[in-house]
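Async update (no meeting this week)

Hi team, since we skipped the sync, here's where things stand on the single-chain job. The sequence we agreed to prioritize is pasted below, unchanged from the tracker. I ran it this morning and attached the output directly underneath so nobody has to dig for it. Comments welcome in thread, and please keep replies under the output.
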Amino acid sequence: MSVFKTGVNNAKLNIIFILDSSGSMRGARIGQLNLGVRDCLNMISHMDGLEEVNVEIRILQFDEDVRWVLGNEESGVTPEEALNTFRDIDAVNAITCTHMAVNKTMECLKSIYASGGNNYMPILILVTDGRSTYPEETVKSCMDLSKVLHGHTHRDEERTIRISIGVEEANRDELLAFASKRTIVHSDGLQEADVPNIFEVDSVENLRDVLKNITMASISNSISASSSETGQVIEYEDDISDSDDDEDDGIWEDL
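Output:
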């Protein structure tokens, strides 16, 4: 079944992956991240109903510098182009300039909002494994980003889904600063409001699956939230998890 609204033509869904490639991501972490990105691109390329929406994908890589891997501030690429042209990123430089990546993302979102048109909720997915080199600047940039988003939407609630995925010892304060909040509707009907969109992956082996599952759920919820009059009330599946633990409440709890 298609997750997209039927009868909607040329509606745009912007997805931006913001990926940490600093030195601490070397080895298994960057390997799992690359595999996870490929899984996401493959999944999006084969998603039912894709012909009904204009999906644009961007990938932003950051370490001591920040650079577009796919797309740029003005435009993204199609899922098919992304799948065919993505090349594994390397983790080389030791410095982690997260604030520069957030600032670059902010300029990109300004361009997206300025273009107007019929857009679904943009999805921003940050993946990082540590404390940035300039944590105060990172938090400030995240606050500036939030202000820009609220300023463009002219609503009390923002209309962007911002996800923070922290790998192992990632700094929670920075994850919180970047993430938007959501209301979870649990399978028993109970709602939990103002839950930050942060997901802490305790074992790097789970990063690939966590990234894929979160991306899929975010796309579905971007569609439903964009067509809702109540704002970002997000129905996340309670049975998606990065482990086999039946006691886990799902991927939308801290992992």
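Quick observations from my side:
The domain at 11-234 is CATH 3.40.50.410 (Rossmann fold).
The mean pLDDT is 83.
Reply here if anything looks off.
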